[in-house]
Write the structure tokens for this entry.
Amino acid sequence: MIEKIYDMVGSYDVCDIANRFGITITEVHPSLLSELGMIIPKLRTVYVREDLSPNLFEYTVAHELGHFFLHGHLVNNELYFSGFKGKLEKEANDFAIALVAKHHSIPEKQVKFYLNDTFPFLKLA
Ligand SMILES: [Zn+2]
């Protein structure tokens, strides 16, 4: 999946990928989101907290893009809140870890370790 996306975009950068697929990334005040990020696939819009560090921003947008590419076809799930739990969340997390690893040319294991170490609330399995 990620290699297919790379072939189309020529980049592993989340902003480049969003641009290529006409997805708008909107940074919003933390009080407006109960989680780090959210995507409404039908509106092709990712909402992300404006107070995230660059690394957490990248991971969060990658996670929401994971929902778009992996779950965007589930019409009864038009809106995803990133609860970072459950089957769909695990799939989006795995997608995000793989994408970030490719972008920074580091092993996925190292990405997961860094994220869990720096942002323990993510509780990535
Ligand atoms: Zn999610």
Notes: The mean pLDDT is 90. Residues 2-122 form a domain with the Arc Repressor Mutant, subunit A fold (CATH 1.10.10.2910). Residues 86-104 form the longest helix (19 residues). The longest strand covers residues 24-28.
